[in-house]
Amino acid sequence: MQQQRGQWSGRLGFILAAAGSAIGLGNLWKFPYVTHQNEGGAFVLIYIAAVILVGFPIMAAEVILGRRAQHSPVGTFSILSRGRPGGRLWSAVGFLGVGAGFIILSYYSVVAGWTLHYVLLALQGKLATLAGDPGALQDHFLNEFLASGTQQVSYHLVFMAATVGAVYFGVKNGIERVAKVLMPLLFAIILFLLVYSTTTSGFGDAMRFLFRPNFGDLEPSAILEAVGQAFFSLSLGMGAMLTYGSYMQKKSSIPRSVLEICILDSAMGILACVIMFSIIFTFDLEITQSATILFTTLPTVLVQLPLGDVVLGLFFVLVAFAALTSTVSLMEVVSSFAIDELGWNRQRATLVMGSVIGAFGVLSALSLGANSTLSELNLFGKESTGGVFSSLDYLAANWMLPVGGLLIAVFVGWVLKSSDVRDELETGHGPLGSMFSMLRVALRYVAPIAVGAIIFSIIFLGAEYQ
User: What are φ and ψ of residue 26, in 5° steps?
Assistant: First the structure.
């Protein structure tokens, strides 16, 4: 028997939870990195265009599917594909999303656990001391922390426990309550750091770099990179938005809600750029693709600022909050599968699935220096450090998510009845007029071609989105 399905208390709860899912470590590190690599201003404008033309339609498609079927990703495709071309084969897309959520959470929580270690160091007054000596901090991180299997596994499991705890209490009393507390705090911290960044000598250079429309400096490859960043930044293709959409009330507007989520996510990335570039240009900092820059190089710079120890502590609280709101959405994708497809109650689904993911994540936790076998294991023939961790990241980011996103766009654009799509979009919103036709074109042509280009670049050009 289908259990009574939880619902958000209102549109605000859905927006904060969904924005929390989208806003994560990628906004604080990956977006500033790719923006820096692509010369700033013009890239940001193309990124915003990609969010509108690709990100918004695919996110809307996920929410449409979830609210229409009121089910987890697997059940959603199984229900909505009946009598449609391809039939129940479409449920494979749901399984792909659940699998992506499982895999990403298993290693994402390892990095998220690092934030707990740094927050604890900050509270103990040790982080500022370590950050005062770049060599000491790097040695601590690489040779003491990452090499310690006990610490890696412990912090990973603690973060998983926090994630499970938020999901355990349900949609309204767990996930939404956490989002309503953490998201305002997250934005308060980012706004404090933004105001603080205006006092740095590099703020003016950061603003010019970020908002100068320098199309002459833009490489053609930057367009594809902007599309990729827009897609991955919004947590698309893994069923998180679909699952959250299944708890959305009929009186809430899908177009308005999705637009606000896209705005919040993009704003967070741009604000993070202003903060990061102010620091980069103040100290002539070299920015790298590796997420470890947040834990090695950046602290040594932040601590040199006035009130540096306070700023340093707040920064890692910010990163921890952003990570938790993301891991909660990943956990919910997997838990909803067990609830809807296996008939488990929420408590059992969350505890069992959380325990399995936590156990599987130990492999990633030990593959960054604590265990030589796992660190050297290369599952896909890619030259990279991190063994199991990097291999799983490569699989999820380069294959599972873009393929999932492509198939979701195709399903809603070509397979689902046009009348069903319009009905979901207009319920709680009102007549869309020509906007519906534009969204339909985006889902049928623009989004599939754009995501298809990402997949093409991975297969034939060797691009990697990690």
Answer: -60, -35
Domain of residue 385: give its range: 11-460
pLDDT confidence of residue 236: 94
Q: What is the pLDDT of residue 207?
A: 95
Number of domains in the chain: 1
Q: Please write down the HEC assignment for all residues of the chain.
A: CCCCCCCCCCHHHHHHHHHHHHCCHHHHHHHHHHHHHCCCHHHHHHHHHHHHHHHHHHHHHHHHHHHHHCCCHHHHHHHHCCCCCCHHHHHHHHHHHHHHHHHHHHHHHHHHHHHHHHHHHHHCCHHHHHHCCHHHHHHHHHHHHCCCHHHHHHHHHHHHHHHHHHHHCCHHHHHHHHHHHHHHHHHHHHHHHHHHHCCCCCHHHHHHHHHCCCHHHCCCHHHHHHHHHHHHHCCCCCCHHHHHHCCCCCCCCHHHHHHHHHHHHHHHHHHHHHHHHHHHHHHCCCCCCCHHHHCCHHHHHHCCCCCHHHHHHHHHHHHHHHHHHHHHHHHHHHHHHHHHHCCCCHHHHHHHHHHHHHHHHHHHHCCCCCCHHHHHCCCCCCCCCCHHHHHHHHHHHHHHHHHHHHHHHHHHHHHCCHHHHHHHHHCCCCCCCHHHHHHHHHHHHHHHHHHHHHHHHHHHCCCCCC
Q: What is the CATH number of the domain that holds 29?
A: 1.10.4160
The pLDDT averaged over each successive group of 10 residues in the chain (466 residues) is 75 94 86 88 93 97 97 95 90 96 96 95 93 90 95 98 97 95 94 92 94 84 89 92 96 96 95 91 76 82 86 92 96 97 96 98 95 83 72 91 96 96 96 94 97 92 76
Q: Is residue 6 part of a domain?
A: no
Residue 90 lies in a domain: yes
What pLDDT score was predicted for residue 1? 44
Q: Is residue 273 part of a domain?
A: yes
pTM of the shown model: 0.94
